[in-house]
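quick one
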Amino acid sequence: MSEPEQQEELRRVMVIAAHPDDPEFGCAATIAKWAAMGREITYLLLTSGDKGCHDPEVRPGQIAARREEEQRAAAEVLGVKEVIYLNYPDGILENTLDLRRRLALILRERQPEIVVTIDPWRHYQLHPDHRAAGQAALDAIFAAREWYIFPEQLLGERQPWRVKEVYLFWSEAPDYWEDVTETVDRRIAALRCHVSQVGDRLERLAERVRDGLRQAAKDHGMEYAEAFKRIKL
Ligand SMILES: [Zn+2]
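structure w/ zinc ion:
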């Protein structure tokens, strides 16, 4: 089967991340490209980033509402179909059995062929939510395809679900490069929507993002690329 035909089949994509803005900092040019190809993209955010503000006068609930709105605006720029928030508290996310169970159920119900998430094995990654989100997503992908894990979810019509491909962003061991020359500007435009996070450093940030993507592309015959560790299941 040729590569384009193969890609044709992988229509549903779920991006699982810890915070609003993680996808825009990690993989959004790829998301814009895939959405334009006709893939159906869903964002699943485990927290709403309610600690993403250093002003002690602003309450976490206010920040969460603002960041959810910013994330929805960014998603619209990219062509993402739906954004789901699970509303776990920001900064203290854990890969618990409960979270894994919940994610497995979502995977079994929504049946994404592709999952994009954070590489939890990146060394010295300080933010616990990033590690926990990637780990929980991968553990749930494993659980979702097994009959004997969370079998109570399989009573009735629901079946195990096998995700076909996983793409890990922020990886130290990338082995797949997506050519995003056409959509790098979309990623910058989506980043711009996260006003509470990028604020007045957007121009510097945009330059940094472009530099990073050029760097990732340079050995692969592309102008701009996003790098991933790809796991085929
Ligand atoms: Zn984050």
